[in-house]
Amino acid sequence: MGKRIFTRMGDGERIAMSPGKIKDDLLAGTNDAADRAGIPVLTPDDLELLFEIFAEPAKIVGVAPGEEVIVSDDAVATLFYLDQENCGQGLPLSRVQSILTYERACCADTLSTGHVDYTFKQVKPIVNFEKQDYYNTSLMTTAPFFYGSQPNMGIYFRPDGPFPNPADLFPAGKIKEALDAQEDAAAQLTRDMVYVSKQMYDVGCEGINFDTAASAGDADFFATLQAVSELKKKTQHMAIEVGMSSEFVMGMHGDITFDGQLLAGMYPHQQVKVVEAAGADIFGPAINVSVGESTPWNLARSVTFVKECVAVANIPVHPNVGMGVCGVPMFEVPPIDAVTRTSKALVLIGKADGL
Predict the structure, then answer these.
(1) Do 103 and 124 contact (CB within 8 A), yes or no?
(2) Cβ atoms of 247 and 305 closer than 8 Å
(3) Do the Cβ atoms of 153 and 189 come closer than 8 Å?
(4) What Å distances lie between residue 176 and 72, 185, 219, CA to CA?
(5) Residue 254 to residues 128, 200, 251: CA-CA distances in angstroms?
(6) Helix (H, G, I), strand (E, B) or coil at 218
(7) Which fold has domain 5-348?
(8) Is residue 255 pLDDT above 60, yes or no?
(9) Residue 300: closest CA among 338, 353, 336, 345
(10) CA 219/CA 256 separation, integer angstroms
């Protein structure tokens, strides 16, 4: 091992760090997560293994045979045909062709699809088209096949939706009106998620992915949990995955509870318990990345959150490892050296069930 180790910043910039500096950043990262969430720091053995992962000279690293985990995704096959402005490759393929390519050429563990406008509110008016497309594709696929979409409660507020916008009401001092607007929007969001998911179930949908939950705060998270709870009563044979938008549930409402737990301020090890209570089958924590810190700092922080989440979970935990979450740099095409080190650390140290 040389005196300098090549790694990344949180924005993907390639940098060289001394072994001592990497170890300092690993310790600082785990301390930051522990302080914020009130959870244990990584053990000295964890930190040493994490350092060894960064010190590996290969560009691409991996786990030993037998330690592999399953991979789920949020409509990643669409990246084949989406344009480059949407992080895609712009290939002349249909959505069905992209899914089949992902399954057969990339050997995907699971598959997923979703409308290009990845939100339940936008899917609802065209759900019959989505049902037909899902059904036709499912006849040609073998791997478990999810339909995904985002709750995205923000688009239920004006000017995009029917409800008054809390961002306008709060500054005007209309606190009750802002809280009522969030509750009304959450109720409509729940109905829409249940409606779309039930429609997909009717054509044999094998799984629903509620992706980027709580992006609009605790009311958004509440709506998702309510939808999961209702669906589990009606669609017992359909798997449900809940992926979060952030490590921390923002208290945009501040007084909403589920299963007796206040949702505002929850960290992953608390989020997973209410997701379990709602009846979901897979939980996906999302840990924010700081672009101004190194990947060692960000990854140590992410692994700390994930390790505690897995320790208390009774359902599989699949950390989100897309761009800008769980240690992966915030960059349109995340560098493979950082992605594989993130994946290896989350599996070996965080004990993730999948990615």
Answers:
(1) no
(2) yes
(3) yes
(4) 40, 14, 14
(5) 37, 33, 4
(6) helix
(7) TIM Barrel (3.20.20)
(8) yes
(9) 345
(10) 7
Query: For the segment 18-35, what is each residue's pLDDT rounded down to a tens digit?
Result: 999 999 999 999 999 999
Give the C-alpha separation, 109 to 76, whole Å: 12
- Rounded to the nearest 10°, the torsion over CA 127, 129, 135, 137 is -120
Half-sphere exposure of 41 (CA within 13 A, CB side): 12
For the chain, give every domain's residue range: 5-348
- What is the three-class DSSP state of 52? helix
pLDDT digits (tens, 9 = 90+) for 129-180: 999 999 999 999 999 999 999 999 999 999 999 999 999 999 999 999 999 9
Say what the pLDDT of residue 87 is.
76
pLDDT in tens, 317-350: 999 999 999 999 999 889 999 999 999 999 999 9
Please give the backbone phi and psi of residue 169, each rounded to the nearest 5 degrees, phi first: -75, -40
Beta partners for 17?
A: 5
Token pair of 281, please?
Answer: 């089958």
Q: Where are the beta strands (DSSP E) in 66-129?
A: 111-113
**Amino acid (one-letter) located at 63:** V
| The token pair that represents 169 in the structure block | 């009401």
Helix axes 218-234, 175-201, angle to 10 degrees: 30
List, as one string, the DSSP characters of 74-88. SSGGGGGTS-GGGT-
CA dist 313 and 56 (Å) reads 31
Q: What is the pTM of this model?
A: 0.96
- C-alpha 7/C-alpha 262 separation (Å) is 39
Q: Retrieve residue 276's tokens.
A: 């379990």
The kind and range of the H/E element at 243 are strand 239-244
Answer whether the bond into residue 159 is a cis peptide, omega within 30°. Answer: yes
Q: Please give the Cα distance from 72 to 112 (Å, whole number).
A: 8
Residues 117, 148: contact at Cβ < 8 Å? no
Tell me, rounded to whole angstroms, the distance of Cα 90 from its chain centroid.
Answer: 24
